[in-house]
Amino acid sequence: MPDSKIFEELGARLSALLAASPAADIEKNVRALLSGFFARLDLVGREEFDIQAQVLQRTREKLEALEERVARLEKPVDPDGGE
């Protein structure tokens, strides 16, 4: 059975060879291209999206409460004392 150090050395040499190959340059260029593309899309992260969704939910709840209050205030008052 061959020594495991031989496999480790072979793996290290293959990794170094791939890192120095044009494939590594292509990967770097594609990553840079995609990063620039996504930056121009003005995307937001999941955390920021979730925070804004919570803010929107609270705003909706406040709006509904205000609409109910306005409806009660606009309701005509019965002069006989009943509603």
Describe this entry's structure for a reader.
The structure is a single chain. With 83 residues, the protein is mostly helical. 77% of the residues lie in helices and 0% in strands. The chain is built from three helices and no strands. The radius of gyration is 32 Å and the shape is rod-shaped. The N and C termini lie far apart (95 Å).
Features:
single chain; 83 residues; mainly alpha; 2 domains; rod-shaped
Order of helices and strands: HHH
For the CA atoms, what is the radius of gyration? 32 Å
Query: What does the average pLDDT come to?
Result: 83
What is the β-strand count?
Answer: 0
Short synopsis of the structure:
The chain is 77% helix and 0% strand. It contains three helices and no strands.
Protein topology:
Elements: H1 4-19, H2 22-40, H3 46-74
